[in-house]
Design brief:
12 helices; flat; 3 domains
């Protein structure tokens, strides 16, 4: 049990470390590829899954202008810096408009493809019959390819605009930043939020399991997380990825939680000793008070 706990903990820890070291990692792929009866719940967590918020040029212009004004105000730019910020805004906006003009026909075709996909999704026979479901998967695959072609350059322009404005800050101003450019279509718990949480979640649980601290809580949390992975690829659903390894690991974590293996070769052993010592001390104090009261009577 000790080896199992440490092994699974090491697995979680390395997963978290790999995610932190890979800046391109995102939970959007995992959430967007969910299959089965709970797929919609996972799909809805993907930030701007279809890219429509980023394809809204008017909304982008408004956000960019507000961001530029905020950067100038928060950093306290002088007139020269404010002028450079406006030049960056104009240059990046021209770059973005050129992209929209160049891909205008592709964007229109992409929107029509989304409408066709949504119409297919409302037809139960197309989602439940394997052969018809394959047609829907083909359409979604084509849309994914087209979306990457259209949206990736937009993301790079957004990132460049955000980075250039922050780079205008000089010594004495940088401590006020960096200032983040808020993306459109954000929700409280979407894939961008998940991307910030999961790496540290994996690292923390992995470390706790390896050293045997708060083992039961860590094992249950890790097991439930793996169960969510299993649920995202509901067994038997056409196109679902096999998730038996995650299910087996989740069951092993629940066994670890039930046996409290952290008390053997783990920090939980010392936590238990401290708790027993404290409780024993309180119990002795209470007993002494009762004895004193009885003798006084």
């Amino acid at each position: 049990m000790i080896a199992l706990r440490i092994g699974i903990g090491f697995h979680f820890f390395t997963e978290g470390a790999d995610k932190l070291q890979n800046p391109s990692w995102s939970s959007a792929g995992f959430l967007g590829n969910a299959k089965g009866r709970f797929a919609d719940s996972f799909h809805n967590m993907v930030w701007d899954a279809d890219g429509l918020a980023r394809l809204d040029l008017d909304e982008t212009k408004t956000r960019w202008e507000h961001f530029r004004e905020r950067v100038v105000r928060v950093y306290g730019f002088d007139e020269s810096q404010a002028k450079k910020a406006e030049e960056i805004w104009n240059r990046r906006l021209n770059q973005l408009e050129a992209h929209f003009d160049e891909y205008a026909r592709d964007i229109e075709e992409y929107r029509l493809g989304l409408a066709r996909r949504d119409a297919y999704r409302t037809q139960d026979d197309r989602t439940q019959v394997a052969s018809l479901s394959g047609q829907l998967n083909r359409i979604e695959g084509e849309l994914t390819t087209k979306r990457s072609e259209l949206i990736r350059p937009i993301d790079l322009i957004w990132e460049g605009y955000e980075g250039e404005l922050n780079a205008l800050a000089v010594e004495g101003q940088r401590h006020r930043g960096p200032i983040a450019l808020e993306r459109p279509g954000r929700r409280t718990l979407d894939s961008r939020t998940v991307d910030k949480i999961i790496p540290y979640f994996d690292l923390t649980l992995g470390l706790l399991l390896m050293i045997g601290l708060f083992t039961r809580t860590a094992a249950v949390a890790a097991g439930l997380f793996l169960c969510s992975v299993v649920v995202s690829q509901w067994p038997g659903t056409p196109g679902a990825v096999p998730v038996w390894p995650q299910l087996i690991e989740a069951l092993a974590l629940f066994v670890i939680a039930a046996t409290a293996s952290g008390r053997a070769a783990g920090v939980d052993f010392f936590v238990g000793l401290c708790r027993a010592w404290c409780c024993h001390g309180k119990q002795c104090a209470a007993t002494n008070r009762e004895t004193s009261t009885t003798q006084g009577t």
